[in-house]
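thought: user wants a sequence for this fold. calling inverse folding tool.
action: design(structure=
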């Protein structure tokens, strides 16, 4: 039982770190890259990743807070898997502006 609690704590705080990474990445990107990548605006993604990071830090993976944790993790993963690669591609010149 103690191992399961330890694993859930690692998942909880690890996900918060992933969210923080996504927020910092969104913060450091150029605002025009979002529109060039045909994604939502920079302030919207900063709000999404920032709010999701806060939700993942405040609510646990298990228990009633999981109803907030799961969509927050999904939002951060959408940024990392979909938006981040497009922003990198656009800023490296892989796509025409």
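)
observation: tool returned 97 residues.
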């Amino acid at each position: 039982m103690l191992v399961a609690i330890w694993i859930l704590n690692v998942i909880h705080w690890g996900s918060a770190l992933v969210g923080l990474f996504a927020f910092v990445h969104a913060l450091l990107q150029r605002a025009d890259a979002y529109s060039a990548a045909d994604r939502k605006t920079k302030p919207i993604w900063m709000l999404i990743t920032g709010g999701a990071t806060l939700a993942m830090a405040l609510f646990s993976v298990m228990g009633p807070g999981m109803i907030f944790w799961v969509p927050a993790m999904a939002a951060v993963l959408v940024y990392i898997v979909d938006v981040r690669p497009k922003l990198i591609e656009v800023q490296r010149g892989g796509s025409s502006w």
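thought: summarizing for user.
answer: Here is the designed sequence. DSSP finds four helices and no strands in the chain.
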